[in-house]
Design a protein that fits this description.
By secondary structure, the protein is of the alpha+beta class. About 40% of the residues lie in helices and about 15% in strands. It holds the Pfam family APH.
């Protein structure tokens, strides 16, 4: 049982965790391997059973709250949905507790242990390759991610919100922990987002961080963005009444486990998985770019509109190639072309990026310019 003020080290009863795992695994005794891996919100540790099999214990570092409990339950439910209805490799969930009110003393999950490593950490890690997939593995890796992306987007519901698994094993959609819901239409979602949205930096901090330049223009754009979204909410989606696709909230290669050949072994960290309007479906985050309307105009060639930065030009090319890979995967999966069409829709991609980075981490940019027709026309022409 946890007590107020204890940190996760004091709260966690590892012996009780092992006993619980043994009970779940047909009485097989287990022991804890010594290494712990710390993330931003969780600690991971491997349990090894007497038959040599391994599970992964993922311990929540913060004391549980109503919000964290809901998020963990939604994550577990989403993982079960993905395992049951797609071929996406997701670790099997053996057991979990969503709060601290039990003998183990912390919120946790016990899942299948996947060998390999996350794609960002192979070949020397970020210090060596800055998070880039090695060139010789890149296309095969992207193609595999595209197949996963298509399967994920093929899971669709008639409401927008978090994934909820009912007692009978069926799935429905529940509210977000911040903006509420579930929402019947994309319009309802965008209006709720606009009412809740708050930029994390104060005007004074924005002015200090920019130190000159078009400060007032950027500040005005940031402050006016939520009200602009609300005013245009009914115009933002071409599929206002759905059905709406499932997305992974952090679809980055730090959450994709691979072997040394960059073959995908699993997709992890499904916290925040939910259904969203199609206009918020993005590329994997390792293909992220700042939309040109939001970016500084001097970062682009005046004559051809191309980015001056070589890395950004390459990213534009890779996004185009990835969209084609998605289209090929859609044909292979015998599904519609909704995902590839969304990725090719620059208006949708601009909106998705802007809504994602506005609240967290609060990136500076010309937010309201994504709605200006002349900006969109110029960008699509390129």
């Amino acid at each position: 049982m946890a007590f107020a003020g204890q940190n996760w080290k004091e709260r966690t009863n590892w012996d009780e965790l092992c006993s619980y795992a043994t009970e779940l695994n047909h009485g097989l005794c287990c022991h804890l391997l010594p290494d712990l891996t710390n993330g931003l919100h969780h600690v991971a540790r491997v349990l090894e059973f007497e038959d040599g099999s391994r599970w992964l214990a993922r311990i929540q570092m913060a004391a549980s709250t109503k919000t964290t409990a809901a998020k963990l339950q939604n994550e577990i439910d989403a993982m079960m949905l993905i395992r049951e209805r797609t071929r996406i490799p997701v670790p099997r969930v053996f057991g979990y507790r969503i709060d601290d009110n039990h003998s183990i003393g912390c919120a946790f999950s016990l899942t299948e242990f996947l060998p390999g490593n996350v794609a960002t950490d192979f070949n020397g890690g970020y210090a060596t390759h800055q998070g880039q997939i090695p060139a010789q593995h890149r296309k095969n890796f992207y193609r595999s991610v595209a197949r996963i992306h298509v399967q994920m987007a093929s899971l669709r519901f008639h409401k927008i919100g978090t994934i909820v698994r009912a007692e009978d094993g069926s799935y429905t959609v529940g509210p977000f922990t911040d903006i509420g819901g579930p929402f019947d239409t994309a319009t309802d979602f965008f209006e709720a987002w606009a009412d809740y949205a708050k930029f994390p930096l104060s005007p004074d901090k924005i002015r200090k961080s920019m130190q000159g330049g078009p400060v007032e223009e950027v500040l005005t754009s940031i402050l006016e963005f939520p009200s602009t979204v609300r005013a245009m909410a009914h115009q933002l989606s071409s599929s206002d009444q759905g059905p709406f696709p499932v997305v992974h909230a952090d679809f980055f290669h730090s959450n994709i486990i691979v072997d040394q050949g960059y073959n995908i072994l699993g997709v992890i960290d499904w916290e925040g998985a939910c259904t969203v309007p199609w206009e918020l479906v993005e590329f994997p985050l390792f293909l992220e770019i700042v939309p040109r309307p939001m970016d500084a105009p001097w970062n682009y060639d005046d004559e051809n509109g191309q980015p001056l930065d070589e890395g950004t030009r390459l990213r534009w090319q890779e996004r185009s190639e990835y969209t084609q890979m998605v289209a090929e995967a859609e044909k292979s999966e015998l599904t519609d072309s909704k995902l590839s069409e969304t990725l090719a829709d620059q208006r949708a991609q601009n909106l998705a990026y802007a809504l994602r980075v506005y609240r967290n981490p609060g990136k500076l940019g010309f937010y309201t310019k994504i709605f200006q027709k002349e900006e969109l026309k110029d960008e699509q022409a390129e």
